Amino acid sequence: MMASEQQTVLDAASAPRPRDDAVRPPRPVRRWLVPLLVVLLLAQMAAVMVTTAVQQTPTIDEPVYVATAADYLHGRGVRHNPEHPPLGKLVIAAGVAIADPHVDTAFDGPQIDLGPHLLYASGNDPWRLMFWARLPVIVLTLLSGLVVFAFARELAGRAAGLTALALYSFSPDVVAHGSLATLDVPMAGFLLTSVWLLWRARVRPRLYVPLAGLALGAALATKMSALPAVPVLLGLAALSVWSARPGDGTRARLLRVLTGTAVLALAAVAVVWASYLVVDPRLRGTAQDQVPVVHGLRGTLADLLPFPRAYADGMRIQFRFENHPWEGFLFGRVYTGHLWYYLPAALLVKTPLGLLALWAAGAAVLVAVRRLRPAAPYLLVPAGVLLASAMTASRDLGTRYTLFLPMFLTVAAGCVLAVRRRWATFVTGALVLFVAVSSARTFPYYLPYSNEAFGGPARTHLRLHDSNVDWGQDLGRLADRLRERYPDERIWLVYKGSGVSSSYGIEAADPREVPVDEVRGLLVVSDSSVAKAKGRLAELIDSSRPVDEVGHSITIYRR
User: Fold this and answer.
1) Reduced to 3 states, what is the DSSP secondary structure of residue 58?
2) Cα(485)–Cα(365) distance, rounded to whole angstroms?
3) DSSP characters over 315-343
4) Cα separation of 148 and 329, whole Å?
5) CB of 112 within 8 A of CB of 65?
6) What is the 8-class DSSP label of residue 203?
7) What gap in Å lies between CA 383 and CA 456, rounded to an integer?
8) What are phi and psi of 526, to 5 degrees?
9) Is 558 helix (H, G, I), strand (E, B) or coil?
10) C-alpha distances in angstroms, 208 versus 148, 186, 199, 262, 331?
């Protein structure tokens, strides 16, 4: 037997066994069943996200992104929010353009006032503007769901794809942050798309490696926290190209590996440059806020990256944030600084129990099942590296920094069905149903979700704070509650958020600015402020009686 024939036989013997659904011609009913289920899962997810989006007031981060997007539409360059690259805000700008808000081009105040000025002081309807700004992110979140489905289906069949999509569509964190005009979900979705394309490059590298580079560039041009994934994806590109034609000689394969990784890197760099050129064609814009001087390894890294100067400036601003002594809250403990175990602990609280179980089982199946083992580096290594990077960051502010996990590990969870045992199918179905019920029970309050082991969304504020619970999203609901149940009451408000209470009809005073004995009536406090209360605010809360709550993020006290 000739060497080429021997290699063909070996390749056929070592190839994954074809799935039943890949061999048997689909029946007419089944041919339409899978697309129908995909549409239904995404439709319910879209309905939930749109409902959530129209009911929530701006969260802390959203106004500056929306206002910067409006700045982009008026050709004002990268003056504001330079700490994040432009692409995610250009996505948001697609919705802002439809809302067509009035922009005060003469505004020259600090960045922290930019968003509130656009929303509340420029004659715009904040509800309408925020809905349209959030809509493009909702669309991107749904498209990422299609990638989740396609990736899992390619690995373990249609049932695995549907399982992964169901888990993704019911993930409270994905629904919560996919409903907001923020950057975390788009960045994670672009990264997953890049990895999926690299997996496909094992068969057609010439087509999929450049596309993977474009998706990686989109992630880098959305949020700088994607940078730790770059060496991982370069390694995966090398692995895919090396695996594409195993019969060729070593020298030829090495040459293709070098070419493939170079193509991936160049495509990614091109996308980053393009995003800045769209915003500032001459690249002459300068950040309004002062860019800090960063020395040492971090400064060298910012200088060496082949990106525009504005990107390096944004990195320096991010490094300044990392040096800030942030205050955290975990399981009732207020602390200054960073806890390395904060994110694993927060994920334990914020992730549905069924999803945690399927994540672990999916990771085990990827490693244990021989035909799935080649996919393990593509799903587990990027997720692990990004999680390790997030765990070293100084800001213990929420699981939104780990939104890549509900994407990568959900694909892995779908692969549990590769275990051809009836009990595995039954257990997986039961856990998916458990996740769906847990998610439905928190509707429409997805930001403060916690699983049943930790008491559900009503008790999340006892263990976590900030974007895990209270990100300023319930100011509008508070206005409705006060108008319906407490008309004509004196209101004292301590609100953590970017909204302007008077714009929603709330006439309130700050109780911290008067003597304690003068505070009479209703004391309304955001739960993040309750968690970290000290001094006069702590005294006010201790001497008050809780009588109501709003959205599991704001507590109303009677004094």
Assistant:
1) coil
2) 53
3) HHHHHHHHTS--EEEETTEEEES--TTHH
4) 33
5) no
6) T
7) 26
8) -60, 140
9) strand
10) 17, 20, 9, 13, 45
- Chain length of the chain: 559
- Confirm if 358 and 3 have CB atoms less than 8 A apart: no
Q: How far is Cα 25 from Cα 513, in angstroms, rounded to an integer?
A: 74
Which two three-digit tokens encode residue 266? 């160049």
Alpha helices in 56-157 (DSSP H): 62-73, 87-99, 111-120, 126-156
Paired with 549 in beta bridges are 555
List 491's β-bridge partners, or say none: 522
CB 395 within 8 A of CB 403: no
For residue 118, give Cα distances in angstroms to 53, 91, 539: 19, 18, 36
pLDDT digit of tens for each residue in the chain (559 aa)?
Answer: 444 444 443 343 344 443 444 445 555 547 889 999 999 999 999 999 999 999 999 999 999 999 999 999 988 888 889 999 999 999 999 999 999 999 998 888 888 899 999 999 999 999 999 999 999 999 999 999 999 999 999 999 999 999 999 999 999 999 999 999 999 999 999 999 999 999 999 999 999 999 999 999 999 999 999 999 999 999 999 999 999 887 778 888 899 999 999 999 999 999 999 999 999 988 877 766 778 888 888 888 888 999 999 999 999 999 988 888 899 999 999 999 999 999 999 999 999 999 999 999 999 999 999 999 999 999 999 999 999 999 999 999 999 999 999 999 999 999 999 998 888 899 999 999 999 999 999 999 999 999 999 999 999 999 999 999 999 999 999 999 999 999 989 999 999 999 999 999 999 999 999 999 899 999 999 999 999 999 999 999 999 999 999 999 999 999 8
Per the listing, tokens 């509130």 go with: 116
Q: Which two tokens stand for residue 272?
A: 């980053």
Residue 519 and residue 528 in contact, taking contact as beta carbons nearer than 8 Å: no
- Joined together, the tokens standing for residue 176 give 């919560």
Measure the CA–CA gap between 208 and 233, rounded to whole angstroms: 13
CB 305 within 8 A of CB 294: no
- With CA atoms as reference, report the closest residue to 126 among 498, 553, 507: 498
Residue 556: its H or E element:
strand 554-558
Say what angle helices 376-391 and 184-200 make with each other, to 10 degrees.
150
Question: Would you say 55 and 477 are in contact if contact means Cβ atoms under 8 Å apart?
Answer: yes
pTM: 0.92
User: Residue 120: how many CA atoms within 13 Å on its side-chain side?
Assistant: 16
Q: What phi and psi, each to the nearest 5 degrees, are found at residue 472?
A: 85, 10
Return d(Cα 144, Cα 175) in angstroms, integer: 12
Helix axes 87-99, 62-73, angle to 10 degrees: 80
- C-alpha closest to that of 466 among 342, 376, 373: 342
Place of tokens 């450049």: 210
Sheet holding 554-558, edge to edge: 491-494, 522-526, 554-558, 545-550
329 forms bridges with which residues in the sheet?
Answer: 334
Beta bridge partners of 522: 491, 558
Structure token digits, residue 386: 């990004």
